[in-house]
Amino acid sequence: MPQSLFIVKRMAALLVAACAITSLRAQSADPRDAPPNEERLLNTTVPDIPLTTVSGARATLSQIAHGRPLLLAFVFTRCSGVCSPFLTSWRSADRAIAHGRYLRLALSFDPRDTSTDMFTLARHHALDDNDDWTFAVGDPSDVRRLADATGFWWAWDETRQQFDHPAMLAGIRDGRLVRLLVGGSITSARLDELVREVSGEFVRSYPLPGRVSFRCVRYDPATGRTTLDWGFALLLIPIAATGIGTLVMFAAGARVRGKE
Amino acid sequence: MATVASTITAPGADVHRTPLIRVTLVWVLTALVLFPVLAILGLLMRAQQGGYLQSTPPEVFYAIMTLHGLGMVGLWFVAGMAVISVLLANYVKPTTAVSWIAYGATLAGVVLLLAATLIGRLGVGWYFLYPLPFHSGGTWPPWATASLFAALAIMGVGWTVWSADLLFAIARRYRLSHALGWHYLSGATTPDVPPIIIISTVSFIGVLAGLVAAVVILVLVALEQFGSGFTNDALLIKNLTFYFGHMVVNITMYFGVAMVYEVLPAYTGRPWKTNTLVVLAWNLVLFLVMFAYLHHLYMDFAQPRWLQVTGQLSSYLISVPAAVVTIFSTLVLIYGSTMRWRLPSVMLFLGVMGWAIGGVAAVIDSTVAVNTRFHNTLWVPAHFHTYFVMGVMLMILGTVFHLVTDLSKVPERSALTKTIVGTVGLGGYGFLLMFYLAGVASVPRRYAVYPAEVAVGTTFAKVSLIFIAVLLVGALVYIWETGRRCLKAFSS
To answer: Is the alpha carbon torsion for A21, A22, A23, A26 positive or negative?
Structure first.
């Protein structure tokens, strides 16, 4: 087999393998393996569903928010997993946030939960007489619509007799989804960013430490300062490589001229 | 019929040029076939924005936009390379086989791109900005992304070898200091280095730097896709992508300018000699072109402020040596000369003026304070279509007509010249005006269908269809006239 044909065949095989691997990687993804996809949901209109608060009052989402930005969390009272630690973490981080800046809404997605159950949950976290916090239930179909609009999901786990679900905060302003904060533990810095963003401020996004290689710049959210990182050196490769290559090429050209 | 100035050897006179002319004619014929097809894709996009083709899903619009953008950028780059190589052959000896290799690589890349966009509906835009190709949301399959990167890799290798061969051809005859004209700065006038050598040396160094940036992108993306736990920095990839993309587009324009320097003297009857100003201008371009791309990242808040300042300064300063020197030199060359206004000379002249108009629009947009308003509006496609369609495209097509008329000995017809210039001028600037007006009205770019807030964009798109049709008529007449000369030259 001629050398050139062999190389072409090897390259074609490599290309096919690359396509196949890429396809397999895409197919193996389970939506529940990944957190809710914020990119696809941002600026989505959130349905203004009716809710029943722990006091028994009926009001829509917008009526409860009353023009304020809103942070929404889905929980259920029989949760033996993340719900309670999540609410504790939220409440703890929330202490640094000024009173009245935004509305905190904990909404049950479990059809078995009643407003009495949610009141018990609120009292457990000492939030039953806090005006900033609202605990509520809703019609299952309405709650499902709201969950779909914010990327929240749940699935019944027969073995544990529990719902499997993510822990997340959805930031809503003027009836539209502004940002998601996903994870069972909420730090005060992340919550502060979320509240600022949901209040209409521009908040910089930045990669989590250790997740991205060859970063151009490093951003410190505490100070707001940006400094160059090692990845920036990669930007110099084209100039350096071409500079050296040009010098080598003209040196070789001079040698050819010399021979001629 | 056009004859060539004293500084230019008549095409076909040199034995080693004949096979190179043959492959160049193949490049030209291919470009003449692809150009109207890609232009019609643009027409379809404006038709959809104008409220027609309602049943066409938006993802088809984005796939067409990707093919139109990548296709046009690639088409005029390779057309520029091919024409420059044959003009350079007056002074140096490029390798014909390398041009054929680049042609094969380009064809293979085109096939992969067609599959990715028309079958796979890949809709990433011409700059395939990371990480979009890997987050299709189900709109295009993973193989389409793989196909795009394979196409870029194959074409990148072909173009790198081609550029390196042309630069090496210059290196075999000139020292680097002579190829860049540095001896003119110390008052020496020998050896006599024509402007095309200096501009080509600057351009090929720039192209190679851009292609190296593309290699870095491909390596990083491959590492992420086939590595474990490796995630790329989107800002780094964006810097590299625009370093590559801006460089390729910028250098394509410089190819066109080099053609003006080389061919226009044949019609003015005056030689266009290298002087200190030309040398200074193009050496400054070589330095500034490395940083001008930064104006694409004004909206990236994480980019350090000093890089943003560098971007604005480079974008402003680069317009002086490249554009202003060339534009004024062109006017000086023509003023008071016995100018023969034939199709090539008219196209070259209009190309320089189109470059000036598009350049002014680009400089306006490269001002940070203005960019915050114009970014991602139709002002952006307005300016780059101006210096591409009414700038470099006219320069390349004018030079091609000059070459094939000389080779085929088919005389130019005055009526057809007027038809081509009239329709291309009217259609081109009319179509561009609709882009500019829409940009001023804050109509966003890359929208398949305009929402109610910017519904005025629909009207501009509708009107532009008339002008695009006029432009296409002119283009088709040109293609017919050039194509038959090309075929005659090829057969002889």
So the answer is: positive
